[in-house]
Amino acid sequence: MDTMEVIIEKIKEYRKKKGFSHENMADELNISQAAYSKIEKNETKLTVDRLYQIAEILETPVYDLLDVTPNNIYNQQNFYDASVGYQDIQNLYQENKDKTEKIESLYEERLKDKDKMIEQLQSVINTLNTK
């Protein structure tokens, strides 16, 4: 089984654990059910962005879908053109950095919303206590 097949099997496994159908996944990804089915059949190329979207929908870290653990260390030597591999790594780093910053921003917004809600509830409590 090649790497992509392993990833797709992991996606299927996590989707089934969540009780999601192909239709659910397709709706969440804003694609047709047929398009999603092609992803799970490995008939359509799975992009990094799509993998991140799927991981978010399944509420699981991407590394779980990739079956990567700290014990899995891969060493690669590029003898033909090291700059190509370096550029790929830099692109992946930037994409991950952008996604992390977005997640942090959303988290900060949620914290602010929580603080506002606490203030509102405290105000209601104070109003009820003065009556």
From TrEMBL:
Domain HTH cro/C1-type: 11-65
Keyword tags: Coiled coil, DNA-binding
SMART domains (UniProt xref): HTH_XRE
Database matches in Gene3D superfamilies: lambda repressor-like DNA-binding domains
CDD domains to which the protein is assigned, alphabetical: HTH_XRE (cd00093)
Gene Ontology molecular function terms on file: DNA binding
Coiled-coil blocks: 89-131
InterPro entries: Cro/C1-type_HTH, Lambda_DNA-bd_dom_sf, TransReg_Diox_bact_type
Pfam family, one: HTH_3
Name under which the protein is recorded: DNA-binding transcriptional regulator, XRE-family HTH domain
UniProt source species: Chryseobacterium profundimaris
